[in-house]
Amino acid sequence: MKRSRRVVLTLMGSAAIGAVSMGLVPRRDCGPGNEAVPGTGGRTYCRPVYRGFGGTPGRLHGHAHGGHGHGGHGGGG
Amino acid sequence: MQRIVCPERDDWHATAESAGFDFHTIDGERYWDERAYYAFTLDEIERGIETPTAEIDAMCLELVGHAIDDENYLRRLKLPEAFWPLISESWHRDDGSLYGRLDLSFGAHGPAKLLEYNADTPTSIFEAAVFQWTWLEQAIERNIIPKRADQFNSIHERLIEVWKKLGGAHHLHLAGMTENTEDAGTLAYLEDTASQAGLKTTLIDIEDIGLRDDGQFVDLDDRPIELAFKLYPWEWMFHDAFGAKLLSAPTRWIEPPWKAILSNKGILPLLWEMFPNHPNLLPAYFEDDPNAARLGTSFVRKPLYSREGANVALVSAGTTLVEQEGPYGAEGFIRQALAPLPNFADQYPVLGSWLVDHVPCGLSIREDENPITGNTSRFLPHAIL
């Protein structure tokens, strides 16, 4: 609550207040980790997406392989 | 508290997009809405919102202190037993909280009432911290609002300060569902504030977190994740594939595991038990508690776990007036007394009162034609006049 405050972004946004555009595409949002799915009467509602933390194949890293195993990224289920 | 209709800035779309705020419009519907704003007196802000927010947060911390090692509380909250040690250790280690948002009913009659606490994964912080401040400055310059107008808002500078405290010399990873537009915006904004605090940061999708055979969570470059901000609910972390590895991994999480207690709607009846008749609380009971009958036939029914109003039902005189669809409710429900939201021009505003490191420091307002605030509610700015 002080009018002299300056709110500056250094990473976010573009042009006058930053250098990097996020390139976001507007779409329906359902909050963290939710997805919109068709409901009754033509309405949509939000439900969790249960892929999440550790849900992608190939994410158990073995040192013996000498590298990381993120190759399964993009899968899920 | 007033709702004041005002002209929009003719260039606000471009201003929003240049700031990275591209989710101002969702499915062709306004999310950011500056065709009106809410005006408060300084006394309403300080005594009506700021002071109760601090008091509610203090009550919440007292509740956690009671619940943390009490099997009775943890069972009532339906927290999975396997994670009780993780939750307890994070509390006793004093793992810090970055932020949270109390949703309050305010402006109808009497004091602010706690509707719920978004303690774990609150979003809309960019709009609250940055874009409504930009609106205030430009609206003053353009004579849209009085020159004396101010705003309850020091969220941005508080975040930067708290990152310095929480971050130390650690590299910070920020994890979440980066394909979700709003989550990506929230993560980008928080990363920006952490960077301004001097932290080295890496943004990572929650699905890209790896697990090494030594039990260490790592990023895509195999860098160990020592300190992670996660925009991903604890109850999902617990149930996901890597959940069982949380106990042995050395990663420190923000928000910390003890916030799993406060993000549960079961705190509403527990707070009412601990602080009966507190002026900022609504009567609330677990649905299977015989005392729930005290609410009579009019109440709000909420799942223990729910987000964006999903599965919340408004019951009046035994009839369900409004119900939001959704997938929640398997863990049970609570019932909370009806707190009529103020009606301004057939709009129902809910106040979001922000805490950063337990300090009340900002306000956001979501407005809806529906008395249950959901994911399509619009964000309106506010001013102190």
Q: Largest interface, and how many residues on either side? A: A-B, 56 and 73 residues
Average predicted confidence as pLDDT of chain B: 93
Give the CA-CA distance, first to last residue of chain A.
47 Å
Strand percentage of chain A? 15-25%
Quaternary state of this entry equals heterodimer
User: Count of helices of chain A?
Assistant: 0
Total of helices of chain B: 10
* Main pleated-sheet profile of chain A: 2 strands, antiparallel
Quote the beta fraction of chain B.
Answer: 15-25%
Work out the number of β strands of chain A.
3
Which of globular, elongated, flat, extended, rod-shaped describes the shape of chain B? Answer: globular
Along the chain, the helix and strand elements of chain A come as EEE
User: Roughly what percent helix of chain A?
Assistant: under 10%
Inertia-based shape of chain A: flat
The order of strands across the largest sheet of chain A is 1-2
> Order of strands across the biggest sheet of chain B?
6-5-18-19-20
- Note poorly predicted spans of chain A: 15-28, 63-77
